[in-house]
């Protein structure tokens, strides 16, 4: 515990200098934040907010919830269930398959170029930022799924949102992996994803993605790589 260590003798400014040495990988901050409430508060309100303001200023708002969601988005793989692959009822059949969110692998950067390549042509002007590929790889039913995550900037002003809301697309009872939203939409069945990705022999889509009302995206692709 931090209270029983030498860190309890240091003021916040010195502790923040130490934490700054760990900024190359946000997963380090996620682990440190689990040590105690003091560390968690410093990571959320100083380290991560400063990092976002430097690297993702267009996505950062004054809402603490937004900053917390961006931190989770940066470090957290959504898991197969949130990516629309593994149902809860499958858990007993294959307990080794990861379904819940967990610390992700790969670069944490959010990039719009990758999001543009994911969307159908009529939605290319929407700002979808995706974490660096390929993210985490998970096996399930003799396939390997490459999971990704991302966020729409100003989601309620995008053409994707207009399409989902205007067509009254059915929500799915799968909660978001990054915020408190209890439902998501399937971007594949709503024809928001680029058509060229195609399907597997058994009819399964090569790429799938789900979005919540706050614009957080969880998805997966398999077999055919998205980007060269």
UniProtKB/TrEMBL annotation:
Domain of life: Eukaryota
InterPro entries (UniProt xref): EID1-like, F-box-like_dom_sf
Database matches in PANTHER family: EID1-LIKE F-BOX PROTEIN 2-RELATED, PHYTOCHROME A-ASSOCIATED F-BOX PROTEIN
Protein name: F-box domain-containing protein
Organism from which the protein derives: Vigna angularis var. angularis
Organismal lineage: Eukaryota, Viridiplantae, Streptophyta, Embryophyta, Tracheophyta
Gene: Vigan.08G247800
